[in-house]
Structures are given as C-alpha cells and as structure tokens.
Design brief:
Elements: H1 13-32, H2 45-53, H3 65-76, E1 88-89, H4 98-110, H5 121-137, E2 146-150, H6 153-173, H7 177-180, E3 189-194, H8 200-207, E4 215-218, H9 228-240, E5 244-251, H10 263-273, E6 276-281, E7 305-309, E8 321-325, H11 344-348, H12 367-401, E9 406-407, E10 416-421, H13 425-437, E11 441-447, E12 450-456, H14 464-480
Parallel strand pairs: 1-11, 3-4, 3-5, 5-6, 6-7
Antiparallel strand pairs: 2-8, 7-8, 9-10, 10-12, 11-12
Length: about 475
C-alpha cells in the first residue's frame, strides 16, 4: 500500500490535501467511465460475471488506492447502471440531485450514527427537526405526532404494521405485546391491503408471526385502486367469522401502476371497526411538492401513519425513507433502554436518543440529504421536478393510447405507465431485452396474465423528443420479432 494513502481523516494538512486529490481522481474515474447518453453498456451477464470474478477478493498485500481505482474504472464503472440517463426508466429507482451526492460525502466523512445523541449531536437534532417539518408538510398535527428515518419503504411499512398491531392489542385485548408476546387471538388478526400493493405487507405479517394468510388482499377496480365495496364486504364477513381486523393499508402510488387508493373511504371503514389506517406513500408522497397534482393525495392526512420514500420521486440517493406517525405514542413499541446507550437520566436532561423510535440501532444520517435537497430546491424547484415527471407520463400515455400497435390499460396518476405491444408476450419480452442490449432500460411486469412493459418516468431531464424516439424504436423492434 502506498504511504500516500491516509488511514483516516484528521486535522493534518497533508492528509486533507491527499484526500482532496483522491476525491478528484474518483470523480475523474466516474466521468471517464462513459462517453454517451446510454443507461447501460449492454454487456452480456456471463461476460460481466467473468470480468468481475477475475478481479479477485482479498489480496495478501494491498495494491494502494490508485491501482484499485484504475481497476474499478476499467472493469466496474463502465457496466454500472447510469440512473441519470434519460434512457433509464424501468423501476422506482431515481437519478439523484447533485447536492445530495455532496451530502452523501459529508455523511460518509463524519460517519455519525443516529441511535444515541452522543453519536451524532447535530445529526440527531436535525433529524428531529426534519421529522417535525415532514409531519406538518403531510398534514399531521404539530403536537403529538412523531416519526423517524428508515432504510426504505419496506422498513417503514413494517414499522407501521408493528405499531398498529401493538396498539390494537392493547386497545382491543388489553394485551401488552412487548411484554407478553402475541395474544391468544393473534391467529385471527387481519391486515387489509390492495391485491397489487407492495410485498412488504406480506413480509411484515410473516415477521410479526401471523403469516401471509393474515394479509387480506382487496380486489381493485379498473383504475387499479381498492374496491371499497369489496373491502366493506370483506370486513363484514371477517368480523362475523370471529376475525379481528386491526390495520388497513392505503397505497398512494402502487409500484406498477402508480394508482392511488381512496383513503377517505377507507378511513370511514377503519373508524367503524377500530382499525389503524396506514398510508404506503413510498412512491406517491412526492406529489406533496406539486401545486398542479398534490390534490391527488389530499386524503393522506386522514391516515394514522405514512411511509415516505425520498429515493423515489424526491430524487435522493439510496437509501432514504421515513415513517411518520400521527400519534407518536404508537412508536413506543420500539422503545427499550440500554445502560450503555440510551440512559433514562440523559433523556431527562434533554439528550434525545432516537434508538427508541426505530427498528434499527445504528442508522445513517439520511436526514441531511433531505435537508440539503429541500433547502437547495425549495417548494418551487421540487414542484417543477414533480410536475415534469407526472406530465411526461401523461404525455406518453396519450401518445400510445390511440395507437393500435399498443395496449395501454390504465391512465397514470403518477409517473408510471404500464403498456404493451399488441403483438403478444414473446414479442414484448424480446423487445425489452433488445433495448437493454442497446443501452435503453425499461421495465417489465404482468397484468391479468399478460406480459406488459413499463415506463417509470422520474427523470426531470426527460423530454418528449426522447419519449417519441423510444416509442418509435419499440415499434421498430416489435415488427422484427
């Protein structure tokens, strides 16, 4: 290893100069790794697997930073996914705002942890401040609401369902799950969610010891939103059968279709049966920044908890999410005091230890990314980003809806459009693979047993001309298969 490679940051001027040089060299390697606007090199998976395998694992003697960076630039970076490309549109996997790349550098340099105040003083206070602001932004009361940052939408959803279960068990059975484990009635407890909702609801029910069968899947209508009448019938039948509905999930932006459930109607039913209503707004929460489209999620404040993902429509680096809770007391299901970490006497003296609100212990300072993005862009800047994404989806849908070569079954509410060439499943599969080999990456899913293609349009640099050119290429490829 080169003597010029510093072990750690310090107050040494030599170390600071050398680290600055390492950052400049790293940026050069990133920029040198691509030379066009494609999203992917198109390399075959077997060839890439061989190249990566040839790099080796752990040498006896370190090679030094420069040599490793050269290997990385030569073999890894050219075949990474370039999320900033306007030819990348398969998933809820966004490009990232430039200021948040800088925030990631700050987070990595300081490496503060969010479990106790003495591991991240300013970090703790900023997360608390951002959580208060987010609760207000989404219409939760200033007093009594709470939340914390998480690793992603799955963790936020699982956290909400754990909190809902514990709250319901105390309210309904006078049973403290934290102290006593699951109540005798647990096999009859049920959570309700759309049949096209995110799989994390099933995962949560498994983790909670209730199993997949405890998740009741509600049919959807022609717009891929929960069928409220079907939901009402299911609740009536389940209660009559001796079951205990404890939680329902309103999806604000389903993964494939971007559809938004009727949370107002769901709220009425949840109140009737004493249920917690969770909003999975991992995708659609970004609409809160739009003047043009935010009414589409105006009922989100009626929910008891909200999942927000910032690494989707907010264009922040992975990973960055939050769980917001209207009644902050419900987050106390995660509270546990440890003498070495979150001592009660410290908290009495004003030292906030966030570990008591989270499934995790060690956590990154992800709130900094949100702070820097919000302060840099403001409501106006974010509004333009969101309006562009939703407007592009509407443009693309209108572009293909009247074209007999395509099937476009669901008009988008967010920025995802599911569609297909009318010529059949195998053609659609081959078209997606052909585009991938050319450096254009689009999505693939299934609807009613039919293979569908998908555009997820999160990139604010995407213009109509690019959309038109990809549509033309899809039709051209389709005619060849």
């Amino acid at each position: 290893m080169s003597a010029a490679d510093p072990l750690l940051l310090s107050d040494s001027k030599d170390v600071q100069d050398r680290f600055s040089q390492m950052i400049r060299e790293t940026l050069s390697a990133v920029f040198n790794s691509y030379s066009d606007d494609s999203a992917f090199s198109g390399i075959d998976p077997y060839e890439l697997r061989q190249k990566i395998g040839d790099l080796g694992f752990l040498p006896q003697k370190g090679k030094g930073f420069e040599e490793v960076l050269k290997e990385t630039e030569r073999t890894i970076l050219p075949h990474m996914l370039r999320t900033w490309s306007t030819k990348y549109m398969p998933h809820l996997h966004s490009p990232v705002l430039t200021e948040t790349i800088c925030s990631e550098l700050i987070i990595a340099c300081f490496n503060d942890s969010m479990d106790s105040w003495d591991q991240g003083p300013a970090a703790t206070e900023l997360e608390e401040s951002m959580v208060r602001g987010l609760n207000g932004l989404f219409g939760f009361p200033e007093e009594g609401s709470d939340g914390c940052f998480t690793s992603g939408g799955s963790q936020s959803n699982i956290s909400a369902i754990i909190a809902a279960r514990d709250w319901y068990c105390m309210n309904r059975f006078n049973w403290d799950v934290k102290m006593n484990g699951l109540p005798p009635e647990y096999t009859r407890m049920r959570v309700y969610t759309s049949e096209i909702s995110h799989f994390s609801m099933d995962k949560a029910s498994h983790i909670l010891g209730m199993g997949y069968r405890a998740v009741r899947k509600i049919p959807v209508d022609s717009r891929c939103r929960i069928d409220l009448r079907a939901f009402e019938r299911m609740l009536e039948e389940d209660v009559a059968a001796g079951l205990f509905p404890y939680c329902a999930v309103a999806t604000f932006g389903t993964t494939d279709f971007g559809s938004i459930d009727d949370a107002e109607g769901m709220r009425e039913l949840c109140d009737r049966y004493g249920m917690h209503l969770h909003a999975d707004a991992a995708y659609g929460s970004g609409l809160i920044m739009s003047q043009q489209y935010k009414d589409r999620i105006k009922s989100i404040s009626l929910c008891d908890s909200i999942t927000v993902d910032f690494h989707k429509m907010f264009l922040l680096p992975i990973s960055c999410s939050a769980i917001l809770m209207k009644d902050g007391e419900r987050l106390k299901c995660f509270e546990l005091h440890a003498d070495y970490l979150n001592r009660e006497e410290d908290e009495e003296d004003g030292y906030i230890n966030l570990v008591g609100k989270s499934m995790q212990t060690t956590r990154r300072f992800d709130a900094l990314k949100v702070f820097m993005a919000f302060q840099t862009r403001g409501i106006d800047g974010y509004g333009r980003i969101i309006d562009t994404a939703v407007g592009n989806a509407s443009y693309f849908y209108q572009r293909i809806a009247s074209d007999p070569a395509f099937i476009a079954p669901v008009e988008p509410e967010l920025s995802s459009v599911v569609f297909a060439l009318a010529s059949g499943d195998e053609v659609n599969k081959k078209v997606r693979r052909a585009l991938l080999s050319e450096g254009t990456v689009i999505g693939q899913t299934v609807m009613d047993g039919r293979v569908m293609l998908k555009f997820t349009l999160l990139n604010p640099n995407l213009g109509h001309e690019r959309i038109d050119s990809i549509v033309a290429r899809i039709k051209e490829l389709g005619s060849q298969f």
